Amino acid sequence: AEHRLERVVQYADRVIHLPGNGRVVSGAPSEIFTASSIAPPIVELGRAAGWSPLPLSVRDARRAARPLRTALEGATPPPVRAVPDAPGATLLGARGITVAYRGVPAVREVDLDLRGGEITALMGRNGSGKSSLLWALQGSGPRAAGTVRVGRDESGAPGAAMGGDPKKLSAAEARRLVGLVPQTPTDLLYLESVKQELDQADTESGTATGAQAATRATGPSARVILDRLAPGIDGATHPRDLSEGQKLALVLAIQLAAAPRVLLLDEPTRGLDYRAKTQLIAMVDELAAEGRSVVVSTHDVEFAARAADRVVVLAEGDIVADGPTTEVIVASPVFAPQVAKILAPLPYLTVGQVTAVLPGGEADA
């Protein structure tokens, strides 16, 4: 059982698809994915290009894609997501961040600036220091050396002192500067209903409840935020009965109730299917559009290709690459998404970019 089909589909002899309506669809991968509502990027590209049979490996897709690469030569792919012409203000500046456990370095003198309106993917192998860096930035994790300074935007939000270091503030004050969603969101869910979780978040963030729950000095209430991120969740529902995507939305709403300008998400795509990942991309897009800086730690290169403006790569606690998504992940054989591998050396990351350049039936030229 696997959500990330791009990792396993080329090795499968048979696919069993559960569409969610009580039916079970079983057959050869090339047959199932011809009409399946879920598919990895390699299959989506094959559908768009009209390839038959559908290739299931990058090697087979590269062979099939020769005419497509020729048709795309000279065209400039559109940006995956619209970004402001000018970079946003620096909301967080970290200098010399060092984290060590029992004398063993996990993060080594990292310098990092996070800008408003920007979505950054933090990538690297297991043990590269991603989680340790996020917790050090938020202030809850250990930090052997270094400083973090978080400023306010022009409106004055979130209300803590300009240039404050979350490490030196109370937990409530730190949450107003930097919010963090851990790898397991349920670690932050401990009450008996969604409503209780939302009310508790509002209480801790100084939000009014009842008739005045819609807005407050620092922003909307947790309930209002949740309804925007994932409409229709019943307040009486136990948090652990929610889907993985709904749990993530609930924890995001809890963290955003404190109105942080910087939001850190530690591997949020774990356990999410393609639809839930698309919803998550919409969520982080909206947060960035509000002027926040969003950092997503992830191993999911397909998610990073679709969601991030910038990619920072960690290796053994050091930043080894930092730049625009297209430049960083296309240049990496490890982190390149399927479309980039298939269409290399052309700078395409997603199927959407291809179909935007070659609309209609031109993709099978």
Structure description:
- The protein has 365 residues and is of the alpha/beta class.
- It has two domains: 5-80 and 331-364, no CATH class; 90-316, Rossmann fold (3-Layer(aba) Sandwich).
- 33% of the residues lie in helices and 20% in strands.
- It is built from 14 helices and 13 strands.
- The chain has helices spanning 29-35, 41-49, 58-64, 66-72, 130-138, 171-177, 194-205, 222-229, 244-256, 274-289, 301-307, 325-330, 338-343, 351-357; strands at 15-17, 25-27, 90-101, 104-115, 119-123, 145-150, 178-181, 215-216, 219-220, 262-266, 293-297, 310-315, 318-324.
- Strands 7-10-11-5-12-13 form a six-stranded mixed beta sheet, with helices on both faces. A three-stranded antiparallel beta sheet has the order 4-3-6, covered by helices on one side. A two-stranded antiparallel sheet has the order 1-2.
- β10 (262-266), α10 (274-289) and β11 form a beta-alpha-beta unit.
- The protein is globular.
